[in-house]
Sequence to fold (278 residues):
Amino acid sequence: MNLSNFLHEFFIKPIIENEGYNPVNTIVYGVILIIAIYLLNSFFYWMSKKYKVKIEFDANFMLGITPFIFFGSILRVLEDAKILPFSFWFITPGIYILTFLPVIITILVGLFLEKKEKIKLHKFILVVGIFFLLPLLPYIKIVNSIAFLYFFSFLFAFLLTFRFLANSTNLLKFLQDKMNFIPFAAHIADATATFVSLDFFPTYGYIEQHVVPNFFISLFFGSASVMYLLKIFIVLPIIYLIQKHSEDKQLSDFLRVCIYILGMAPAVRDIIRIAMLV
Fold:
């Protein structure tokens, strides 16, 4: 297999035919993600030193970027619904680039305004994100509202359970910190959206496109409820290790913001998609 055939088979074809992920592109995209996170963190660290500005990657920052997450996820859904034309920029990995660029520009402008005008960065990001998001909302046509009932019922049940455990056990005490609980909650939302889509609405042809979750779902008799176990036994320990053993606070906080994005983006896309039945 030559390079052209290799790229077509493992990268171009899965995008064109909406086949999802395979082991090859999963590994490559993962490596690219790690490199991008490293470069971004280095860039923000360089900016803080050179221009005497500092980005607080905290719970407020997560709130601030949430409209941008909804913006990117809804664009993806509108492509699924054929409201937007098929394009590299409306599917993974293009959609992340399309969403990432205005976020970075907004952060840079926001840092300038925070330094000169004392406007809080997270508030500026929130307002700009809402500005991007609002034009997309009229295109969302909910025809399966029961999906929201299932979604929020399971989501709140899990989150309330873990909130109780965080307040009553030493093992999960670290979840009392919003910087740990919010990323975990985003991934529980992702697990819930997948579970509701695959287990409650199997006749609509929804599938898990990621390699590792799909493997475990097949082992779990086809039930996406296994997603909760993956989040609890993989994502939760990662969050714990990041906040416990990282000596670089900026890196630790930035990694947890990235974990939040990686959970929240697919969660929003999946639940809106099943609610629209597309």
In short: The chain has ten helices and no strands. Residues 68 and 103 are 7 Å apart (CA to CA).
